Amino acid sequence: MALSVALPLAFSAHANPIPDSASMDIQFELPAINTSMYARPYVAVWIEDQQRKPVRTVQLWVGKDEWLKDLRSWWRKVGRYDRELVDAVTSATRPAGEYRFVWDGLDDAGNRVEQGTYTFYTEVVREHGGRNYIRQKIQLGESGFTHQLAPTEETGVITLNYSIND
What we know:
By secondary structure, the protein is mainly beta. Helices cover 9% and strands 40% of the residues.
């Protein structure tokens, strides 16, 4: 009697990259907080794929390296593993105000991400203040979208506008 073993065939199902003209405009507000011990917050903005793997650190605002660990969620996922990335994306903390920046749809290695489900994260931490961790599922593909994220103790409204520009 012959014994046969069925081996599953491996299929490679690669998704298409998002369109070359796709980008996500991010409008971000740090509200004015009236307190005698106000300090500018540390901010990390990043994107993760469906497997919760960090894809791109979009913004990182800290004063000194020793404060990077205060951005606990971002630090555990990205910061402690990639010193070169930290050096490349870190900029100074910012005062209260409205900010706008654009994610170009590339990962940290400079490759266009594939179409699919991702999560947008923002972590905002202020010495002598609050800590806010915000996340929003996003679907990157051939169609645009806009999400408005509700204000928190440390952030105003955050608006995500994904668009395909021709």
